[in-house]
């Protein structure tokens, strides 16, 4: 499981078989799948931050200007 901060929003990504799955993480530890964003299966782990930046760039702010890796 890869945890990322997407412009201030806590999310996680995991690889299941040949598919990437994206989740929204709550502050209470609950996780919900994000079905409206499909991550192409050919993307590598190194490309995930850039892809999520492209998808969610409208949510960028002065306080949260980038997508950051939280943990692997």
From TrEMBL:
Pfam families: DUF7661 (PF24697). Residues 1-68 form the DUF7661 domain. This is DUF7661 domain-containing protein.
